[in-house]
Design a protein that fits this description.
The complex is a heterodimer of chains A (about 260) and B (about 100). By secondary structure, chain A is α+β, with helices and mostly antiparallel strands. In chain A, the strands form 3 sheets. Chain A has a 3-stranded antiparallel beta sheet with strand order 3-4-7, with no helix packed on it. In chain A, a hairpin with a 5-residue loop joins strand 5 and strand 6. The two termini of chain A are about 30 Å apart. Chain B has about 100 residues and is mostly helical. Helices cover about 50% and strands about 5% of the residues of chain B. Chain B is globular, with a radius of gyration of 17 Å. The chains are: A alpha+beta (about 260), B mainly alpha (about 100). The interface between A and B is large, with 68 and 53 residues. Strand 3 of chain A pairs parallel with strand 1 of chain B.
Chain lengths: ~260, ~100
């Protein structure tokens, strides 16, 4: 528990008996609660709806920290697997938006289902960082913490701070992922003619059983292309279809999360 | 999640080993293929080809397969939401969508 300046945790969850292998939870719980000192404590949620601003940041940082310092426990490939767990959950009829209306709730069960409040939100933050870059994200979050220290946060305030610090628009991207259920499905058709490749991209909702299915997202798309797929082109895609040209005759890989990996 | 036309899949898989050092990328393309196959957007033959070309080292492969087994068994998500679900934004009701 992330009490400010007094993190409480069961010893058995953090400490490992001599001879036993540490669990992933034992490795991630400390950076998770430390991240909460800023995200949740210094800046706290405005209402229960916004709890993902606590938990998604804490999850994002506990995973980033573990990937960097304990790759024997968790790698970027594990994070990819986690993203696909989120996708599997997000296409069910039990899916709910990361940012919800909890006018009936008070504190009861406000973090459930946790896969959205913790995991999906962390992938949305990763997507925003992929799009604007790690250094810009750091500046944006520093601005956010300064703007709302000892105060309350909402998604609009988060996006606004990032935009003020970086000059890059992220609100439409972030909102389209946190306020809707499901995931977008891009379909790419790349055809060579002459010395150019003409790329057609459409978006639709990945087949789902959502109660309120979304139909369109604002997606930071990164294309990898070139002889060895070494070239990159990133753009924001918020229509049902678009077309663009790439130099040369080339295969194309499209990443809908601001980079080609995750 | 990204799908490709048949020709674009073929072109991509012919080049993707250029990114073989990026195992997370290969894992993601492979998992995308699995998701697309589950909703009949690609064929079994295409999925087999994707998995063959994006083959991961045994340990990583085992982790991804373990994860896919959890998804296939429905062990991911599906937890009940204890509150009334309300309209969240500019969404379209399912019954109004042309099918």
């Amino acid at each position: 528990m992330e009490n400010w300046g007094a993190i409480f945790e069961f010893a058995t969850r953090v400490l490992t008996k001599p001879g036993d292998v540490r669990s992933l939870g034992a490795v991630t719980i400390v950076p998770h609660e430390v991240a909460h000192q800023w995200f949740g404590d210094l800046v706290t949620l405005d209402w229960w709806d916004n709890v993902w601003l606590n938990e998604s940041f804490a999850r994002w940082f506990d995973r980033k920290t573990t990937i960097k310092f304990h790759p024997e426990f968790y790698t970027l490939t594990n994070y990819v697997a986690d993203k696909h767990n989120v996708i599997a959950a997000d296409v069910k009829n039990t899916a709910v938006p990361v940012q919800r209306n909890l006018t009936d709730a008070g504190s009861f069960g406000f973090i459930d289902p946790s896969i959205f409040v913790y995991n999906k939100g962390s992938h949305v933050l990763e997507t925003v960082q992929n799009y604007i870059g790690e250094e810009a994200m750091q500046k944006g979050l520093q601005r956010y913490l300064k703007d709302y220290q000892f105060g309350n946060a909402t998604p609009s305030r988060l996006w606004s701070s990032i935009e003020k610090a970086t000059g890059v628009k992220v609100a439409a991207i972030g909102d389209s992922y946190i306020r809707q259920t499901g995931v977008p499905l891009l379909t790419v058709d790349a055809q060579c003619a002459g010395d150019k490749t003409y790329v057609s991209i459409t978006q639709e909702s990945f087949p789902n059983q959502n109660v309120y299915p979304a139909s369109r997202w604002t997606i930071p798309v990164t294309l990898a292309y070139g002889d060895a797929l070494e070239q990159r082109k990133t753009f924001v895609f918020d229509q049902n279809a678009t077309q663009l040209e790439l130099p040369g005759c080339t295969a194309v890989l499209a990443g809908p999360t601001g980079r080609t990996t995750t | 999640m990204t799908n490709y036309s048949d020709q674009s899949w073929s072109d991509l898989l012919g080049k993707i080993q250029n990114l073989a050092s990026n195992q997370a990328l290969l894992a993601n393309v492979s998992a995308d293929g699995q998701r697309l196959f589950e909703v009949n957007r690609i064929t079994q033959a295409q999925l087999d080809q994707i998995k063959a070309v994006t083959k991961l080292p045994p340990l990583l492969m085992a982790k991804m397969q373990e994860n896919e087994a959890k998804i296939a068994a429905g062990e991911v998500g599906g937890d009940p939401f204890p509150h009334a679900l309300r309209f969240q934004g500019s969404l379209t009701l399912r019954e109004n969508l042309p099918r």
